[in-house]
Amino acid sequence: MNKYLNFINGEWREASSGESVPVTNPATGEVIGMVVQSTQEDVDAAVQSAKLAQKSWRLVPAPKRAEILYKVAYLLQERKEELSQTLTQEMGKVISEARGEVQEAIDMAYYMAGEGRRLFGDTVPSELQNKFAMSVRVPIGIAGLITPWNFPIAIASWKSLPALVSGNAVVWKPATETPAVAQGFVKIYEDAGLPKGLVNLVNGSGSVVGNAMVEHPDIDLISFTGSNEVGKQINERAGALLKRTSLEMGGKNAVTVLEDADLDLAVDGILWGAFGTSGQRCTASSRIIVHEKVKAELERKLVERIGELKLGNGLDETVNVGPVINRSSLERIDEYVKIGQAEGAKLLVGGRIATENGLNQGNFYAPTIFTDVTPDMRIAKEEIFGPVLSIIEVKSLEEAIEVNNSVEFGLSSAIFTADVNRAFQAMNDLDTGIVYVNAGTTGAEIHLPFGGTKGTGNGHRDSGVAALDVYTEWKSIYVDYSGKLQRAQIDNN
Question: Which residues contact 86 (CB under 8 A, 6 or more apart)?
């Protein structure tokens, strides 16, 4: 049986506790390996390794750091299918989505390698003669990365690659459910020739490893993707320690369908956004805000198309919807369906744990749609993180925008319309970090910032050039070659 170890100071190691827990394929219930469970001692060893390695890494010219990232990109390409198969086996998403996720890591590696020659600062004219003024980016130090199971390599790439190209070292805690993909990614860093100690992998629970990372005085920032509840706890504690945090904490994303929309296109976007990854995306489409004139027709088309979706093991190329991650998630989703029914929403389709045709061996939930949902219902406000969609009727674009913005999250939103004026109004008024026009709520590209407003995050962004702001400090530099003391704001009057 496979055993997934820690990687500290360039060595694969057992955890100091000697303990490990099983890793289970959510489609079959099969135990596919064991992952070690680390302690504060392991975190400290990783941090000391990172601290030593970062002292010399920060002095390596950024274009030279980038050369290693290009090698990472090449190796990711070479191992794409292997990593994709592993990802599906331990996380459950269908194989086409797994390949897309690994491709995202490839894209990010190439993009951030390019930033090795574009870590731009600014030069500005001084207000005094014979004086030069500029700003440069400098690394923060050690980045503590805490990543989720739903995008185990994509999100890790969003965080680790900009951290490294900026001159930082990394201590990474992956999700306990997805250690095999994490191991595969770290092996690529190792094989690409990254100096030892710069990437350290520490497996274990959030309550032990995650807390130890937040508390460690030598970890300079925490980049976290996960639940709002845990993110708030991290922010509170890290803030008290004056530690930088970058938080991405989910969404309650809506697709608005106006009366002039291409309904077939809207259905395509909704099904992909709601049931891709079995709804286990922070950008999943969980609300449909539809104009009253086309509500009935949209519902008819959605129910018809849902009947064509095939549930099963994601390694089967013909499967459209895979399992949810574990039994507790399955039960949580089912509980929300019961809440929706109790609140008075009308169940159109689904609403059950799927057990037919051998699906009872895994964690499968039938794609579910509620209609006649009101914005104040819990199923319309709370993140379910499963294949459950709520349809809310509105009478106008203005009402749709109000409903869209009424939740505590602000990650992604979408609108389907043929009216360019209303499209631009929505782009201006939708209070989310990401907006799609005539597409669903998923599909972010790596060269734009990823993140949201309100309860989704704390203002930082993963991906794009904006990610560099998380992992660098600004240093302002003044060079006075006048040969005399010059006092800004005093001697220039």
Answer: 180, 181, 184
State CA 175 to chain mean position distance. 12
Using CA atoms in the order 331, 333, 334, 339, what is the torsion angle rounded to 10 degrees? 130
Give the C-alpha separation, 386 to 274, whole Å.
8
Mean pLDDT of 409-436: 98
* Options 248, 299, 383, 393, the catalytic residue: 248
- 297 flagged as catalytic: no
Q: What pTM was computed for the model?
A: 0.97
Is 399 an active-site residue? no
- Distance CA(74)–CA(70), nearest Å, equals 6
**Domain range summary for the chain, segments of one domain joined by +:** 2-249+457-477, 253-437
Q: For tokens 């289970």, what's the residue? A: 24
**492 has pLDDT over 80:** no
Residue 69: pLDDT over 80: yes
What's the CATH number for 253-437?
A: 3.40.309.10
Distance CA 203, CA 339 (A): 35
Which of the following is catalytic: 90, 115, 177, 282? 282
d(CA 178, CA 21): 12
- The highest-level CATH class for domain 2-249+457-477 is alpha beta
DSSP string, 38-65: --HHHHHHHHHHHHHHHHHHTTS-HHHH
Closest C-alpha to 195, from 218, 219, 170, 213? 170
Residue partners of 52: CB distance under 8 A and separation at least 6? 197
Structure tokens at 117: 């020659």
Q: How far is CA 367 from CA 108, 336, 380, in A?
A: 31, 13, 16
Widest distance between CA atoms in the chain:
85
Strand bridging mode 20-24 / 31-36: antiparallel
Residues 232 and 237: their CA atoms lie apart, in Å, by 9
